[in-house]
Design a protein that fits this description.
- This protein has 83 residues and is α+β, with helices and mostly antiparallel strands.
- Helices cover 19% and strands 40% of the residues.
- The protein has a five-stranded antiparallel β-sheet with strand order 1-2-3-4-5, covered by helices on one side.
- Strand 4 and strand 5 form a beta hairpin.
- The two termini are 14 Å apart.
Length: 83
């Protein structure tokens, strides 16, 4: 699994309600959902338990590069350091 600053643990891979693949990670103890769109875009959702979770989109990524981009984004939110 690719590593970025912070720690990511795969919890589950699934097909989302829309039919797109999704991966659920615990990233530094916070839920991170990576959603892979058919056009190559990657949406990352960061659920901290608040009323509104943060999210970002990375355009035209392979799944591997999309994961790296999502992990880097999540690390920027936590200030996570390489462990």
């Amino acid at each position: 699994m690719p590593r970025a600053a912070g720690r990511a643990e795969l919890v589950e891979s699934r097909i989302g309600e829309c039919g797109c693949p999704e991966e659920h990670y615990l990233f530094d103890g916070i839920d991170l959902i990576i959603h892979f769109e058919p056009n190559g875009d990657v949406d990352a959702f960061w659920d901290t338990g608040d009323d509104c979770a943060d999210w970002t989109t990375h355009e035209g990524q392979s799944r591997f590069n999309g994961r790296l981009a999502a992990f880097a984004w999540a690390a920027s939110l936590t200030g996570g350091a390489e462990r």
